TrEMBL record:
GO terms for cellular component: cytoplasm; heterotrimeric G-protein complex. This is Guanine nucleotide-binding protein subunit alpha-like protein. It comes from the Eukaryota. PROSITE patterns: G_ALPHA (PS51882). GO terms for biological process: adenylate cyclase-modulating G protein-coupled receptor signaling pathway; Rho protein signal transduction. Mg(2+) binds at residue 62. The lineage of its organism: Eukaryota, Metazoa, Spiralia, Lophotrochozoa, Mollusca.
Amino acid sequence: MGEEFTKLFKMADTIMSCCISEHEKSQKTRSREIDKKINRDRLTFRRTVRVLLLGAGESGKSTFLKQMRIIHGQEFDDEQVREYRTIIYNNILKGMRVLIDARQKLNIPWADESCAKDAATVFDFNGSTKLDQPVFCDYVDSLKKLWNDTGIRTAFDRRREFQLVS
Ligand SMILES: Nc1nc2c(ncn2[C@@H]2O[C@H](COP(=O)(O)OP(=O)(O)OP(=O)(O)O)[C@@H](O)[C@H]2O)c(=O)[nH]1
Ligand SMILES: [Mg+2]
């Protein structure tokens, strides 16, 4: 009985030591993987060229970055296209608001006085509403009418006198 017990005990001991060494082995592999990743990240960080882009407002900094992304960057996926669509809608509305404001400040008359109502509609846009396609569509007629008015066009021609994009 005593002999059997010793055998069993030895077997259990062998199984235990196997498990521990397997566990240690997997921990070492994981640690090596982490070290490799740290080294790879360090190399990437060293090779990254950082550019400080300075320039006055409206001088083309953002445009330059967008061009770099289009020329050298990855393709835009559907999600990014949707995101950019919202940004473009926002830019159109914000840009028109700036032009409406500038037209008034520069005392440029409307060609068609009824544009004042469309200007008020565009100005009423609540910036916190998500500008998806249906919301933007509600503004399209007013935006088109305003853009075709010589009052807004004259303000646009004089855009060097104010900042159009922020
Ligand atoms: N003709 C011409 N227009 C440009 C060029 N680069 C930018 N623009 C126009 O200039 C305007 C301002 O460009 P942005 O890239 O927004 O300028 P920014 O330096 O980021 O401006 P802030 O963010 O206000 O400091 C936009 O209407 C651009 O389309 C260029 O190389 N040539
Ligand atoms: Mg910019």
